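Lecture notes, continued. The same structure-token format from the folding unit now serves as the input rather than the output. Read the line below as a description of shape only.
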């Protein structure tokens, strides 16, 4: 039987892993990433629990004990989750890399909590939050980025792909969400984009885009 003091310590490890995972996921959730606070918290707690089982769950078994066996499976399992988050689209490009690597590192934080390396877990949590926030600002180059919502009515959805690629590069834009509805009576498709971009879209550019693309019926920003 476990001593009460050991049980309390293991509970504290799980609570610390939950706190660290929540702190990492909070920043991800605020920026509307694929995996938010809840996902990061659950991954950290799960990794912590597996590490506790790996170290303390088989003490009564005879023979040699390999405490790294479960830990190796944690690393592989989180790797599969990361693959599911990363996706590539002809229109949007590659997305989810930062979130996938963040989940992988969050699992490492949970493992550190599970094995009792509290200082390491807290330091990695702080560093991960700093990387996500400040390196993202450096990548964005300035605070001039804004969130824009653009609605486009077009005859054919395929006609938007080359236009989006061109405008994404011109405005350094990142598409956050995309929804579309089809109007059977008019034979058009209305697409609503929400994206982050540098500055705002000039009216001159909107009018020029409509003139140069006959399939576009209208644009509203």
């Amino acid at each position: 039987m476990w001593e009460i003091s050991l049980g309390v310590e293991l509970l504290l490890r799980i609570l610390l892993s939950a706190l660290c995972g929540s702190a990492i996921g909070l920043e991800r959730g605020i920026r509307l990433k694929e995996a938010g606070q809840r996902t990061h918290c659950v991954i950290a707690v799960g990794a912590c629990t597996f590490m506790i089982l790996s170290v303390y769950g088989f003490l009564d078994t005879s023979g040699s004990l390999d405490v790294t066996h479960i830990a190796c499976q944690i690393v592989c399992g989180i790797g599969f989750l990361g693959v599911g988050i990363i996706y590539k689209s002809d229109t949007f490009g590659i997305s989810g890399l930062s979130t996938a690597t963040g989940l992988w590192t969050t699992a490492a934080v949970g493992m550190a909590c599970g094995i009792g390396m509290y200082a390491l877990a807290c330091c990695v949590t702080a560093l991960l939050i700093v990387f996500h926030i400040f390196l993202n600002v450096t990548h964005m180059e300035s605070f001039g980025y804004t969130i824009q919502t653009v609605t486009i009515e077009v005859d054919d959805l395929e006609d938007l792909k080359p236009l989006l690629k061109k405008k994404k590069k011109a405005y350094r834009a990142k598409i956050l969400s995309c929804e579309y509805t089809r109007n059977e009576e008019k034979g058009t498709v209305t697409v609503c984009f929400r994206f982050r971009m540098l500055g705002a879209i000039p009216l001159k550019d909107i009018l020029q885009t409509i003139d140069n693309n006959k399939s576009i019926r209208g644009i509203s920003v």
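Point for the exam: The radius of gyration is 24 Å.
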